[in-house]
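dumping this here before i forget
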Amino acid sequence: MPGFGRRSSRSWGAAAVAAATALALVAPAAPAQAAGYASDKDKPDLTSILVGYRELWRPTNTKKLTGAVRDSSQLSWNDRVASWVNQHATKAQQFRALQDSRYLSSDGSGYDQSITLGDGLGQRLGALYVKGRLTGKLPLTSKLLNTTDGLVGDYVTTGSAKNTFGYPRPFLRSRTTSKRVSGDSASCAPSKINAKSLAKLRKKGKSWTTSKSNLRITRVPAAVDTTKTYASKNVSLDAGYGSKSMCTSGSFPSGHTRAAYAVGITLATLLPELAPSILARTSEAANNRLVLGVHYPLDVIGGRMAGEAAVAARWSDKVFRDKVLTPARTELVNYLQSACGAALATCIANDTPYANDPYQGAKIPRGSAQIVKNRTTALIAYTERLGYGFSATQKKGRAASVPSGADSLLRTAFPSLSTAQRNAVLAQTEIGSGHALDTTELHRKKKGPGSWQRLNLAAAMSATIEVKANGDVTVISVGGAPTVIRA
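structure:
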């Protein structure tokens, strides 16, 4: 299980940070949008960011989702964790997973993850955030986060990457002669689309496979959300297993996870005081793709990496930052303070923080029960989901590999720090090298842009750091409010 990274006592000078970085990103804003932003064209190359997946799987026919297993150990663990989460999630967690799977309807009704992730703000602040979104009092925030057409929420998509890697989803049958599930599209018949390339991984006798060499996955039934928590009307919820768009599309990386992290990381940058809780809720939404049995942990890790790179690209765009992100932050903070009736710090202190118990106390393989009760446990759950217990596939102990532009994600948490100093915080809080999808080794040899897989934003955005007289930065602790101590 990856840890919190190296909380080294050594300081990182500007030169060291520069070297690490080299290894390694409605609408008053409408007029500016029409003119365009530099980041509109300079989008992250997801296929390049996720190239580490090729060490595990080599597709042969991406339309039929067939290929060759290159690392059976890693892909077997991928299977095991996906099945465990799907089989152990509580009924309440299944319902939350269905809620997080929603996108807005064509008429704009319903809700999406940019609304459901409001839970991460806390019990009262989360309710106020949702109310502000539903009543139109947060137009800049909505335009930014909406996962259908938001300036960050829909900034990058995973369709091209899915087509490139072509991996079959967990619920697909391994046997081509299996019967089609009643109600599924004809395109989803096992004779047409299946996981036959993974049959050898799924031999009977394992707790996560069936007697017919299928991955043990239970479909979560469709439901209707009558709670009116996130919408004024009842909302139909369906994971969409039997739809052509679901069963025939590649599993890696997860598009819903990309959207969740685009929203969650952006929210955390708008409200860095709540970053660990917001990001833990974001990781829950991503993990809910495993709860539904429509994705694997590697898909979720890849989706997180895509979301990180997307938000970093937007924050690195000065014009976009000044005209879109900063005004949205001002709008959101002012609204919450007005609705709460006190300063934001006071509202946070008096609120009940985000909480979650996805497996009713059961411990995930090589991990914990991922119960979240407060800021500390939020950080633990988030960190655990960065790696999902995968064993190292490459050399451990490599130097920090901070992607170019990632430092911009800390601009609001540490506004007084320089680029080099923010990179030092990221370097000292990231997880170790060598785990699935980590590109540290590849980029070390080819001087690439760094590894998005290793970033631990919940730790970095909650760090207490000491800045020495010469500008060197040392991370003292993580898990609190972002704090700078001047020596």
